[in-house]
From TrEMBL:
CDD domains: GGCT_like. InterPro entries: AIG2-like_dom, GGCT-like, GGCT-like_sf. Residues 462-525 form the Gamma-glutamylcyclotransferase AIG2-like domain. It comes from the Eukaryota. This is FtsH protein. The chain crosses the membrane at residues 166-199, 211-230. Signal peptide: none annotated.
Amino acid sequence: MVKNAWSADPGGHSADLRFFSRSYDPRQELVEAEEAPKQPLHEDGFPLRIKLEQKKVPPSVLMGQCRRSPLTGEVILHVDPAYPNFQVVDLAGRDWLPRNRLFLEKDEYLFRPVPLMYRTWLYQSFFLNPSGLGKASDLDYVVRQALDAWCMDILIWDHRWSPVMAYAFIMFLSSLTLDGTIIAMACAIGLLTCAFAVSCNTARIYQRERWLSLPFRFAFLCYILIFFPMATVLEAIGSTLLFLLVSTEIILGDCYFFPSYRFHCRYNILRSLGCRVYVCERDGAVGMPAVVSRTPDKMPHQIVQLPKWTTQNHLIVELEGLMVELRPMRKEDWSKAAQEFGETQDPITFVSLPLCEYDGPEMQDSSDGEEDHLPKKMARGAVRGSTHLETLRAFRQAREIYGGNEQLDWMIQAKLHLIGIHPLKSLVGLLPHHELIFDRSLTDGSSEPAFANLRHIEDATDPAAVSPVHGVVHAISQKELASLDSSEAPLYERVQMPVQVNTSDGPQEVQAWTYVGHGGSTQEHEEPLHANEGRFWACPGFGC
């Protein structure tokens, strides 16, 4: 298969084409591609090292984006695309976190955010429609007002859904009774509950909606029970179904208020720590810790500044319009994060709040030196803005920005994928009797000149003649070759050269395409690359 691929006609349209790209050490790339290092695993079977990426929270992008559905009672947050989706909160204000989970599990400054959706809706409602300014010295008046509201913060079946959801079916079902009074009452109560649902959908009176319509709904149930139409089989069936549906709505809606009332609570602010972080004490919801299997969290004293932390205490933060409870990251949480990272390879995102100064042990992660630091903003901008794969940047500037061969290889691979080059096969190749030169005449007048070029060596005694240009020979399609032509134009032109490759049958010489500057290099502008420069520059090729 390899032999057939490399013996194809380079001018054909249906066969694989050979393309030679120049680089510093192609063998290293091929070995890494075939023998990818195995990622170390934690004792739970998930990756030991995970990547964490810091996110910035833009100010006030969520304010006014939280709504409560008047029908279901569910709070809906219309998240702005600028607001990050974060999984960890760092209260030490750090810009980076170690990758090793053994260090992360011991870090006391990392917390798991638990959104309080109803508190968020209450906070935004009170903020946008303030009833008073509070005390002049109370800078946390709106937060205090939202936390002091009596509501339920856990997600269970509750009574907050509107009766109009059931009466949408009751109105149609009442027609089976063939009783004009029952039909009229069902329609009237349905419209009444709809009006109550809309008018009571505010932060101050949303809990009164069911109580306001309960007398009318209970009277309707009694009327059905007293005047039970059953003159015909259809009336009997309709009356029975109607009675069951009306009574079920009252039981699941109004009567369920009593078992769910034990989960209602309010929070009293004990201490404001700064950065909108508050130490609170819960008033009510005595049975909540048992239901959610919550044990007292191990909170660091330097953060909460309390002598004793119990299940009644909570650490709550307001993050630009979002009310969030902070709970310490446990081993189980890091295990889930590692599982997600192992499946998606997406970084675990965190938000930093400079609440306190980190005074823990200096965690020197051995993996930090090996971390695949992707280029920063300047590097990614260079990749996106690079016009020529044969340059990607002057090698001197690239060395200064990226600091080594790995980052330049990353840029080359990114550029390849960007223009849709996916080689079918790759082999190590050598281009004899040529040398890599630094040609400053290759420029299109833009801010990014092209520098790399090839020069044929006529003199066999030239030291460069015995040191061929290293590279990789790729099998690509005619369409991909056309994409390369477009990428390298107008500074480079495609030429065919004899390239030595190592196949399963031994060394062979094949004709492969590569790119050189138009018309060759001008002697007055060209400079041979020194050994170290040529090794680093990797003459920019494709798939180096």
